[in-house]
Each structure stands twice: as C-alpha cells, then as structure tokens.
Model the fold of this input.
Amino acid sequence: QDEETQHSLECIQANQIFPRKQLIREDENLQVPFIELHGESTEYVGRAEDAIIALSNYRLHIKFKESVVNVPLQLIESVECRDIFQLHLTCKDCKVIRCQFSTFEQCQDWLKRLNNAIRPPSKIEDLFSFAYHAWCMEVYASEKEQHGDLCRPGEHVTSRFKNEVERMGFDMNNAWRISNINEKYKLCGSYPQEIIVPAWITDKELESVASFRSWKRIPAVVYRHQSNGAVISRCGQPEVSWWGWRNADDEHLVQSVAKACASDSRSNSNKLMNGNCSRDFSNGGDLSDVEFDSSISNASGAESLAIQPQKLLILDARSYAAAVANRAKGGGCECPEYYPNCEVVFMGMANIHSIRKSFQSLRLLCTQMPDPGNWLSALESTKWLQHLSVLLKSALLVVHAVDRDQRPVLVHCSDGWDRTPQIVALAKLLLDPYYRTTEGFQVLVEMEWLDFGHKFADRCGHGENSDDLNERCPVFLQWLDCVHQLQRQFPCSFEFNEAFLVKLVQHTYSCLFGTFLCNNAKERGEKHTQERTCSVWSLLRAANKAFKNLLYSSQSESVLYPVCHVRNLMLWSAVYLPCSSPSTPADDTCAPYPVPGSSPEDQPLGRLPKTRSFDNLTTACDSSVPTTNRRSSDPSLNEKWQEHRRSLELSSLGNPGDDPFDGDSLSKQGRAPVGAELSVAAGVAEGQMENILQEATKDDVALEEHLKCNLETAGKGDEIAPEKKRTENLHG
Done:
C-alpha cells in the first residue's frame, strides 16, 4: 500500500510538474528522429535544406543526409541569422553549427524558437536536469526497481571531507583543527561548512579575518603533503584598499599556518625542516620565464637543520599591477613587511575578461577555413596556449614549494573562485596520485571547484536570469584543458582517458545533470539539487569502461613535473576542432542508468576512448557505420613528436586518449571520416586541420600497428553496441 502510494506521488510529480509538451510537425509525415530521454519531449520537427531539424526541451537535433548534429540547448551560447537563409549557432565549447533553410520565413521561425529555448532560465526548475531526474524516478518506481542510488555519486564523494582529512594525515591533536564557524554558511556563503585551520586559531579570530578578506573567504587549508607535512591553503585577497588597512588576526593566521606545518611535520614524520627558498620575489615583481626556470633549477634542498617554520609562499595569481589596481576597489595584496617569514610571488595570470576574449578568438580561428601558411601564427595570436602555460607554471611553482622545498603555500587571486581553484586543483593533481584516479578526480572537482564556490551558473550562463555576458568565462574548461595537457605528457599516470574529460566538458554546460548548477554549495543546498537531480559522476563512474585509460599504471610517477612552455602544449582538437573528438560507444549524453537488475560492470559501454563530441552521437554508436581509425599524424604516433618527447626526457608512450579501435583505416582508403561533411565549420576536415596543427612529417605505421595490437589484446571483447539496443538497455 505504501509503495503504491509513493509510486502514485512520484507519477503525479513527474506528470504534473514536468508535463510533456505537444509536438508540432511542419509535415505530418515527419517523425521524431531520435530516441527521447526520460522527461524529454520534442516540441518541433521540421525540414531544413537537406536535413530534418527537431527541438526538444533538452536538445537541438539536426539530421543531415550523412551526419547528425545532436547538441544540448544549454551548450548553445548564441543563435543568429548570418544570411537570410542560414542559422549560425555558436556553442560554449568552441563548436559552431550552421543550418541552411529553404525559405526566409522558415529561418526566422527557427531563430525565434532557438533563442527562446536557450534563454537563461527564470527559475532553476526550468533546466532539464530536474525533469530528467523526476521522470527517471517515476520509471524505475513503476518497474519496482531500486535505482535511486544510481543518481547519486559514490560514498567517496559524499564523505569526501572526512575521508580526505584522514587520508592526508592531518595531526588533529596538536597542529590543526576542523572549525564549524561556517555551519549553515553563516560566515561565508561560498565556502564549505567545515574548514581546516591551525589548532590555536579561535573562531573569534576567524571572524575578524573574514572581515578583512574578500567575500569573507578566509585562508583555509585544503591539502597536506603526506611525507613532509607542508600544506596548501587558499583564500580571497586582503582588503587593503588605498588606505593600507591591516588586520593583526589575519597576519597571525597566515604565520600560524607555517607554524602548524612545522608542528605537524615533527609530530607525524619526525623530520627536520630545511631552510628557506633560494629565490625571493617579494619585491613586487612578476615572475618572468627566466626567473621561473631559475627558481625551479636552483633548489635549496634540505640545507638547514634548524627546527623552525618554513618561509610561507603567498602565490598571488594576478600581476603586481593588477593587484595594486585592485586597491582602488577595496582589495589589494599582502605587504611583506606585515607578514614576516612570508614571500609574495605574482604570477601574472589574466582575468576572466582576457580569458573570454582569448577563447572567442580561438573559437573564431577553429571555425574558419584554415590557411596552412598562417594557421600556427594565428593560433599563437589567440594567446590561448600562453594562458595555459602560465597556469601550468603557477601550479608547478606550488608543487616545487610543497614537495621539494617543504614549504607551505597560500594561493589567492582577487575573489578566490576562478584562478585560485585552477592553480590549487592543478597543483594537487600534480602532487598526489590519488587525484589522478577516477574517484580521486571526482573528489578533487567536488572539493576545489564546487565546495569552494566557483560560480558555475554565472561562468557557464545557465543560472537564473544569468544574462550578464561579462560574467561568463570558460574557467573550468581552461583547467580541464590543462589536465588534458598533463594526460599527453604523462600517458600512464591517469586512470581516466581523454574521452572522460571531453564528456565532462560537455556536461559542464548541458544541464542534464545537476552537479554544476548554481554558484556555490549554499545555493545548491537551498535548491535541493542533490535530491532532485542526477550526479554527473553516475555517468563518469570508475566502472564505466568507456572512460578507462588502458595505459594507466598505479606505479607511475608519484609527483608529476610537466614541461610548461608554450611550444610543448597542444591544441585540444577533440574539443575545439570539428569532427575530431574521441567517440564513446553510444549517446551517453543520455542516461547513466544500467539495465535494471544488473551491475554497472555488465553494461554495454565497451568501446574505449576516443569520444566523438555531440555532433555525431547517433552515427558513433551504430555498428553498421564504419568507424575511422586514429590518424598516424597523431602527435603520440608521429615520428617527429616521438623524437621531441625523448629530447624532453618524457615517456614516449601514446596519447592516453587514443583509441586503438579508432585508427586511420578509412583515411588510408581515401574516404572522409564519418560526419566530415557536417556543416560545422564548413570545409574543414579533421585530417587537414590536424596536419596543419601538428606539422606531421610522415606516418609511423609500425608504431601505430604495434600499439593497436597490444591494446586490442587488452580490450578484447569490448565491442561497440548499436545505439538502439544500448538505449533500450539504459532505459530498461
């Protein structure tokens, strides 16, 4: 009786709160050209020139003769009419879609429909993730299957703070304590409810510090080196202003972090602390390339035997000029005179407005017909790779300070929710192999990005009434790009592959899952997103074979030291270039759910990395469509690239995202890859762009076949499932 009542309530909720809309067909003979998700309802089906176009409450679907565009609505940034018959759709992940119509009236009708569909929601429940979850729960309730937990992340995510404190070995008896001063977010709305601070710092002192830090984002410890006890802390900028304000409690807290490290190191490791770092940039200058290389190569090592607190490194992500300019707005930076035993380094990272401008330039470049003679210089002019280089250098400086010099580090930018999580999360990824596992990476994203208040709703543009374009910026995408650069340089060090990252990029914006909704944990709690939406980790789970890196070794390097110079970085073609993404076996923008009654490991997710992006989801999963193999011009297989990697003393193994089952068989036969005719960036074929980018010399067929043979053996039995069969399985 109770079960039937519960089922009825769930049906009422799904049917009445998220009712299906009536389908409007331009032609009675037209059918919906895709299988709808739970809660998805198609509103319009019509004809474009040589295509069928459909619009639902979740996606835009365009079926051309030989290719398919399948893009979530929230991934579309803008729609405009470039000429009287053509719609031009710009996507938030750098893709551009063009659709030609036969008449002006048709084009205008679809322009209005799409602009209405992609408008930021007036209330958060208008986002598809809520309808999707409600209908999923109804379906499984009607089947009397208990699948509610499949919407949730694992215990490693839900209990992350407690688990991480124990795993990193904080000395909670003498050095550190967990403060509940932010319980129910009463101190800071964009911080987690529990934070780690030195044991002798009182909550009253923390309140005083909060009044001096931007948005009350006080210095909070987020990482401890398990061998030497050095920690990483993060915060907002000090509110020095033109008046030159000071705060004694803030100065005391910063110095106490270093003292707690010394105490923690002695009590836990019984190790003696060494001397100060050999280079001091506290004169207020930015860290140049020459100084960076010098600071990395001229390590002081364990030269001092004095048992004393290490000199704390304050890493300001901004340039010195930008930090000083912030004083006019009430911000500023730490004055070394007032923070003894500390040094300040300015990294010169660009703000969100410069990053947005750079990304727009990159998108424009990637969607134009390439000019082989000028393409690389045009790429350089976007400054995208330069921005990645500075971010990697910043994280590497933190790694050197913590791992090599055993020094504590405090990281901040202006507000502490954009450049700060980029640096801290990247440094933790380099320092700790746990974060390079699938589960550990989930914990890293949850803690550094979600718990500490990166403004996903504003930066991605899917928040309530988030119409301010100046607030939008691909900050998280830029960080994922850096993770991809690390995957290329250390192909055996990550448990997840490139396909995992590509899918995470898409679902950062798609709003199929509720993980990246709202601006902070407080808002997500108020909106009950955890209870009312599915978690993206239910798709990107460790058991999902499609995202496994076959080259992963848990015995690989403990701490990663990447090459950060621009010349060693690669454009992320799987995300930014048309028709070049790795491809997962089926439309995994759909559901994370397995077949009722089966375990996640049994699911037909067999095809390992390379994921094609949203442009070709349908054909990517159809076993009747021949798949393209990875090109031998790929940098991981290219002879020139191999020699270059050896010169850098890096591993010469292949790209972890490369699919041994997705090679170059079709290109060798002279046929274009599936979907190459897609009107996304018309005229640009995958091979043409890759050859320009990577300056490939000649094919290394032998190496490719060797890698392919080895990995085929490892992945034997993982076959690609037809889309229809898999979708039926996913939806029971």
